[in-house]
Eukaryotic translation initiation factor 3 subunit M
Amino acid sequence: MATIVNTTEEEPMLAVVRFTAELAWADAGPEVADPEVTRLCLEAQEHILAGRWLDMASLMLASADLLLTSPSRVPDKDLECILSVICSLVTKAGSEDQALQITDLICAKLTQQPDDKPALRLKVLFSLYNLLPSPYGKAFVYKKALKLATAGKVAECIIPSFKNIDSFVSEWGIGNLEQRELYLAIARILKNHKGTTKEYFNFLNKYLATLKGSDDESATIGDAKEEAVAAIIEFVKSSTLFQCDLLNMPAVAQLENDEKYQLVYELLKIFLTKRLDSYLEFQTANSALLKDYGLVHEECITKMRLMSLLDLSSHCSGEIPYSAVTSALQINDDEVEQWIVKAIAFKILDCRIDQLNQTVIVSRHTERIFGMPQWQGLRTKLGVWRGNVASAINTIQANKVADEGTQGMQGLMIR
């Protein structure tokens, strides 16, 4: 009994096979081309009938190879349409494993020549990503897209997606090792892209945080020294970053005893735990090192003055005398208010200035390091706040009951 298969142009897959086959054999003449085109179309029909979607993907990709290697022969819109039809095969696969095999074939083909229309190839990869139901498949395609964007020098096409990485990682359910590889790949893309300094620092932090310091990671941590140094330098250079957890990370802590990078670690420690006088002493002895890493002394002084102001705030009982500010920041009396205003503008200090008593009254300040002690302190404050709220609610309820009782007594007396 014969089975009827739709072979009209309305069948997208057969249309793609026919179009690409005709293009591939166009120069051979009709005597040679027509039989080959017919053969490929019949083969495609057989695959569709049997549900052999992996074989269909191989056939379509082989037929479309000419378009990928010589895309100028086909307009970009047509090429994108053809590749999208091929990507749609993952939705027809009979199992997740088969969908992943098809995905692997498509990704291999699209990433073969990354410098040839990379933006178009990347767009198709994202279409493939959206078609996949499997979290593992999505993670696989995204990593391929990262490599393509890097090799094809089209980072601007994938950087906007980085803001969603946390939700992606949660959706994919990938482990610590895969997260580490992902964050490092993203950090390397951002490193060479202008205007993404803050994002670069954030992903360096994410990468370094995945290195826990266990025995089985000792070799890996050793390989992360360059990234640890890069994160330190980015923090010191930044005029807007005043808090980080780098000192608490094993990948950074290893630098303390490293002959090559020991001074870089010491510099970080100064910025996070000490004041301006310590920095000036370090700079006098290591000015060449600062220049080697592109650090500008005047900019470092500016940041260390603000860091010193935060250190004063953390050790005061809510009030800082002007004299303490002038001493710690090494400034004149008439410059105190200027630096207080600067700290307020950076949103690292909430305070008011008592000019009459020459004091700064601090209500909140940024912690330079936010590690376990800071979390414990926050927990204590939240506990006190919760207790105060509960006490206030109990008082309000008690007063309400008393008022209702008083009103009831007044009603009885009136009667």
